[in-house]
Amino acid sequence: MMTWYVVGIWLGIAQLALACMPPTARPPTPTATATVAPKASPTPPPTVALIRFENDDLTFTYPANFQTLAEIFPGYRFGGRYRDMGVNEVIALGDPLTAGPGTKYDIAVTLARKPLSPGATLESAARESYAAPTTQVRDFVFSACEGMADCYDARYARTWGTPWWWTHDVWSAHGGYAYVLSYGSASSSMFAHYDVMFASIVASLRFK
């Protein structure tokens, strides 16, 4: 009993001494420190290898998984008519990774052009290319490109060697020619998925 009494006296003396000490002399009171986990670095987007196409008039880049039609079909020659649009191919590309049953590719990108007639505008030349289709066309939408001067955009589906071929065309003019970059797919879902890829090709197009 005496032991507990003595301990109590000493505890009381210690508390009184601590209270009488100036704040700067008091031992520091432990405080809880919140630990913040470091933020994870954002994962960089995958790098897509690109191939540059260039001729005397222009240049653009496209994903390295694409091949020219001359590579896919040995002996293929560029310069012929592109569909029934009154334009001639400059280059045509296909993605063999998207090949389906009985096809070499289901995603294609073509650059074609035609001379601008005297007095014609880019808009009138582009519209003229859709005036007399030889196959069925549906869901046709034609408009000025958003945020781009002297540029026109056409989206539609048409029958062309397949039940439907979904297409996105972008028109621009240079050196007396109307140029069209045309992207298409035999699959509507694949067409929507690859439209971002096509936008990057359009953005890379530069005239000399």
Descriptive terms for the model:
208 residues; alpha+beta; three-stranded antiparallel β-sheet; globular
Strand-helix topology:
Blueprint: H1 2-20, E1 50-54, E2 58-63, E3 67-68, H2 69-72, E4 81-82, E5 87-94, E6 107-115, H3 122-128, E7 137-144, E8 152-158, E9 165-174, E10 177-185, H4 188-204, E11 206-207
Antiparallel strand pairs: 1-2, 2-11, 3-5, 4-5, 5-6, 6-10, 7-8, 8-9, 9-10
Task: Summarize the biggest pleated sheet.
Answer: 8 strands, antiparallel
Cα distance spanning the termini: 103 Å
Enumerate how many helices there are, as a single number. Answer: 4
Give the total of beta strands: 11
Overall SS class: alpha+beta
Gyration radius, to the nearest Å? 35 Å
**Helix content range:** 10-25%
Shape: globular
Ranges where pLDDT stays below 50 over 5 or more residues in a row are 1-45
| SSE succession | HEEEHEEEHEEEEHE
Kindly estimate the percentage of residues that lie in beta strands according to DSSP. Answer: 25-35%
Mean pLDDT: 82
Descriptive account of the structure:
It is a single chain. Strand 8 and strand 9 form a beta hairpin. This protein has 208 residues and is of the alpha+beta class. The chain starts with a helix and ends with a strand. The chain has helices spanning 2-20, 69-72, 122-128, 188-204; strands at 50-54, 58-63, 67-68, 81-82, 87-94, 107-115, 137-144, 152-158, 165-174, 177-185, 206-207. Strands 3, 4, 5, 6, 7, 8, 9 and 10 form an eight-stranded antiparallel β-sheet that branches. A three-stranded antiparallel β-sheet has the order 1-2-11. It has four helices and eleven strands; from the N terminus they run H-E-E-E-H-E-E-E-H-E-E-E-E-H-E. The longest helix is centred in the first third of the chain and has 19 residues, at 2-20.
